[in-house]
Design goal:
Blueprint: E1 2-4, E2 11-13, E3 18-23, H1 27-30, H2 35-38, H3 44-47, H4 50-63, E4 66-72, H5 83-86, E5 98-99, E6 102-103, E7 125-129, H6 140-146, E8 151-157, H7 159-172, E9 176-185, H8 189-204, E10 208-210, H9 212-222
Parallel strand pairs: 3-4, 3-8, 4-7, 8-9, 9-10
Antiparallel strand pairs: 1-2, 5-6
Length: about 230
C-alpha cells in the first residue's frame, strides 16, 4: 500500500488496483478561444493546471497505473443530448452549434480533443461521456471492474461539476477516491474551494484530497526514497 498525507486523514491505496482518472481536459474548456471562453469564463485558471496534470499523468505512467481520460461529448446527431441539457440557460452558443473550434461538445470536432500536452497514449482508456459524471451511460464501471480497480485518483475540470459528479458516482459504487488539489480547477475559485471542503467533510464523505507533491512523496517512499521527476 502507498499512503498519502491527505485530508481529512491519510489515503492508502494499492497501486496495482488504482486508476488515475483525468476528467475533461478538452481544448474547448481549457484553451483560449474555446467554448469556455465564449461563455465569459477566465480559462487561464484551467490552462494553468496543465503542467501539473501532465506531471501527474507522467507519474502514473512511470508507475504502471491504469490511466483513464474522459471527454464530455455527444454524437453528431445529438441523439444522446437531452433537450433539458442543450436548452439550459441563455448562452450565445449551445451544444452542437458551430463554435471557434468546431461544433460544441461533438465527438471528433477539434475543440472536443484533449489538449496536446495531456493527450492519451496507446493503451490508455478514453471514455466519451454524454453527461457530467463519467459513469452515466458509459462503459467505465465495467472497464474498472474487469481491471480489478478499487481506488481512483482524480484530476481535471471543472472541480465542482464533472469532477465532483464523477467522484460522487464512484463513491456510491464503493471506490476510495483521492482528488489531487492542484491538478483540478474551476472557472470560479470559490466553487473549487467549496467543493474540496464538501468532498472531505464529515470524515471524507465523498473522498480525500491532497496536493500532487504529497502523492509524489508517498510514491518516492514506496520506491525506496527515489524522488520521481
Amino acid at each position: 500500500m502507498i499512503t498519502v498525507d491527505a485530508r481529512p486523514f491519510a489515503y492508502a491505496f494499492p497501486p496495482e488496483k488504482t486508476a488515475l482518472v483525468v476528467i475533461d481536459m478538452q481544448r474547448d474548456f481549457v484553451e483560449p478561444g474555446g467554448f469556455g471562453e465564449t461563455l465569459g469564463n477566465d480559462v487561464s485558471r484551467l490552462t494553468a493546471i496543465v503542467p501539473t496534470v501532465a506531471r501527474l499523468i507522467g507519474l502514473a505512467r512511470a508507475e504502471g497505473w491504469t490511466v483513464v481520460h474522459t471527454r464530455e461529448s455527444h454524437d453528431a446527431t445529438l441523439c444522446d443530448c437531452p433537450p433539458a441539457k442543450r436548452e439550459r440557460g441563455a448562452p450565445t452558443l449551445r451544444i452542437g452549434d458551430a463554435g471557434p473550434m468546431g461544433r460544441i461538445l461533438v465527438r471528433g470536432e477539434p475543440g472536443n480533443a484533449i489538449v496536446d500536452a495531456l493527450a492519451p497514449i496507446d493503451g490508455e482508456i478514453v471514455i466519451d461521456k454524454p453527461g457530467k459524471g463519467a459513469f452515466y451511460a458509459t462503459a467505465l464501471g465495467d472497464v474498472l471492474r474487469l481491471k480489478g480497480i478499487t481506488h481512483l485518483i482524480f484530476a481535471g475540470v471543472t472541480t465542482e461539476v464533472c469532477v465532483q459528479t464523477t467522484m460522487r458516482e464512484a463513491n456510491d459504487r464503493g471506490y476510495d477516491c483521492l482528488l489531487i488539489e492542484d491538478a483540478t480547477e474551476s472557472y470560479f475559485p470559490a466553487f473549487k474551494a467549496a467543493t474540496l471542503d464538501m468532498i472531505t467533510a464529515q470524515g471524507g464523505i465523498v473522498g480525500w484530497a491532497a496536493p500532487l507533491a504529497a502523492l509524489e512523496a508517498a510514491v518516492a517512499r514506496e520506491d525506496g526514497g527515489v524522488t520521481w521527476k
